[in-house]
Each structure stands twice: as structure tokens, then as C-alpha cells.
Amino acid sequence: MHPGTTTPFTLPSPFHAVIIGGAGDIGASISNLFSDLGARVTATGADDAALKRSKLVARDGLKLATLDVTDDAAVTAFAEAQTGVDALINCAGILARDKEFEIATFMRVIDVNLTGTMRTCMAFQSRLKQSRGSIVNIASMNATLALPRIPAYCASKGGVVMLTKALAMAWAEEGIRVNAVAPGYIETSINAAGRSDAAHYQRIADRTAFKRWGQPEDVAGAVAFLCMPASHYATGTVVAVDGGFLAG
Description:
Layout: E1 16-20, H1 25-36, E2 40-45, H2 48-52, E3 62-66, H3 72-80, E4 87-90, H4 103-131, E5 134-138, H5 151-171, E6 177-183, H6 192-195, H7 198-207, H8 216-225, E7 238-241
């Protein structure tokens, strides 16, 4: 980041945020918020179809790209094509209910959610060192609260939390801050099937302090804050955005 160019609770100008998985529901909300805050945004989707169905708001300063986070060469080439990167946001993620007990599926989920996060962090390290920038990884409440039908997802998100902490320690001397945001139950396409069960939906809502599920926009603000000068002393931390689900 560039201290002195802005107030603590806004983004420096100019500012370039690269949002991996920015075509997803949470990723799109993060991308749209960064654009609203005046940043130049590069958002990725796994393929063209993901970009087309996203809720990204087209505007000047928004660039879209496809990226397979499991492809080492593609990730490296993508990072090399970016300039002036101030923030890397890792939102790419998948899950496969019940199928994650199959080793091939288990490994695929780990490769996207955890190893993919490491790939992009490593690929952007030199650019973030130049800008003294930030990384924000999207973890999950399931890093600490396990669910029986998604063992790979839970394991991968637990790994994202510890990866965040390890990289924060490793790269502090380079001026790179590494934090994570752990969403709780957020209404996205990934959990649409579960939300169709009205009783299940209400049980979740009732356990939160706010008596509702979260929206993707509820996550975006925490991510933006972790990239602002106001959070310059925060690194290796995980911010829970779960409506108080785990507080009770």
C-alpha cells in the first residue's frame, strides 16, 4: 500500500485488487465493493460460463479473466501479466457434498481450495512485496466447525487458516500482510440446495445473533477493511463474519 495517499478508512489511490474467484457470489460482492471504493479490479472465474453468470457489475476499471487455480503455468502467467498489484483476494473454492469421501474428489477440493490459494500467493509474492500489499484469503466457519458431508472442504478451509498464519509470519519482513475472513452461513449458489429445506434454513437462522443468514455483501466489507491503511497492524488474523453463529 501507499501510506499518506488517503485516509485510514479508504483505499489508497491508485489501487489494484486482484480477486481470484471474483466471479462467484462472494467474490463478485468483494469485486463490486472494491470498484465502488475506486480501485482497479481484476476478477477471475474458472471459465467463461462462470464469468457470464456472475453478479459482477460492468464498469470502467474492471477486467475479467479466466483462471484455473490448479494449473501452475496458468497461475504464473496470469500473475506475470498483472501490474501494480496492491491486494490479492483468494475466493476460489468448491465443495462436493457426500462425494468428498472419494479420494479423487477429496484431492480435487484440496487442490482448488488450499493448494490453489498457495499457488496464487506464491505467484503474486514479488508484486505484493513491491507494493507492500495485502493478501486476504477466504476461509470458512467450517475451518473450526466441521460438517459430516464435506470432509475435504472442512480440511481445506482449516488449511487455509493455518496457511494464512504461516505466510503472515514468513512475509512480514517483506511488508506483506496476510489475513483471512471466515464467513458463516452466507446465501450463495453453493448452498442453494440446502436452503431449499425450510426447516434447515430456519434452524441456521435461529442460531445466529441476527436471526438470519448472511448475504455476500456482508463479507465484502471485512475484506476491504483488511486492505485499508486502518488495518496496517493486522496480519495473521482470521475475521469471523458469521452473524454470531459461533458465539453462542
